[in-house]
Amino acid sequence: MKILRKFISAILLVLFLSAAAFAQGLPVADNPEEVGMSSDRLARLTSGLNEAVEKGTIPGAVGIIVRKGKVAYFEAIGFQDRENKVPMTKESVFRIYSMSKVFTSLAIMMLVEEGKIILADPVSKFLPEFKDMKVGVKKKNHYADKKELVMVPPNRPMTIQDLLRHTSGLTYWFFGKPSLNKTKWKENVTFTYGQTLEAMVTKISKSPLCYQPGTTWDYSQSTDVLGRIVEVASGVSFDEFIAERIAKPLKLTGSGFWVDGEDQQKLIAEPQVNPTTGKKPAVIDVTKRPVWLSGGGGMVSTASDYARLCQLFLNGGILDDVRLLSPKTVDLMTSNHLPATIKYAPKLQMQLGPMFPSPEVGNGFGLGFLVRVAPGLNPQPGSVGDYCWAGLFGTYFWVDPKEDLVAVLMIQSKSQRNYYRSYMRDMVYQAIID
What we know:
about 425 residues, alpha+beta, two-stranded antiparallel sheet, 12 helices, 16 strands, about 30% helix
């Protein structure tokens, strides 16, 4: 009887949270046709995701499509936790990894609008330890007939804009090939979840930059550094800023750095066991407040929450009469900020594929988003001006202003992330019929 009561309580909690989320959600179209989408064609998306679950390719998924301000599609498919037979729900909570970067970029731009930050500010204005950072350059030693790492001063200071557009000279050591000894970089900068943001930036400041600021696009820990700048500029902890200044006013009830409460932990979507290794892939622990508040990859969210966040941007910085940004700031964030002279870190195009911010695939990069800058060229369908990003374990979103469209896909399958980014795009655009 006690077990039954606990089970009923858990179900009631899920229903309560779901009802609250729907009450706070976006308007729902009577049918997809009302907003220019085909019910029959959207069924292909559901069918394909169901088939993937049945084959064991992914444990489950939640997809949401918003067009013309109304929800045209919202489905939960498969398992939230396959091994424990927990079904996926529309309000399942996902580790969103690098989709955390949009929250961080939004926080920075809110502080810009308050006059506390200027994009051209040197990072050292907020983090003095960055003032004396050097750039690591490999130069040939003619006497030893080999290249040696030499420290040279930066040609100009690293700026807030550099951090937002990933031209800071920082790196993620596991991408590309840094210009300094990889072992040395890992010793100083590798992820340590037991460190504070303050400790993290101190460690980073002790390593040389991989590139001159402003010269090279390299996906990096830049956004984690921005999280610390939010703390310094606002005077509150990063998680408090996100919770009180963004999540609360936007009614994002499932978004933050961890999931509160014993019962709510049952809402967390989990990756499935790898059939080859017999093990689940390692993921960050989101059942308690982390020491390291990673604005680059440490947050959780739900599909409906993230759709609301995207709708804020699509609306020009306002949602349900809550304005966090001006339309001109959103325009600035979603414009290409990479100059024609930009270089790219090695191997990133292979890693990112259609999401590589290069003219070769019709893309650029703004202040926190990949931005499409040219028609054609990219194998993924979309519109010039659409912007997007994704997370390590398969979460993905994009906003298409031309089509008045927001789309979010939440899965937890690292190995399948690239495929389902393209699959979601294909299925959404083939369903547009007006």
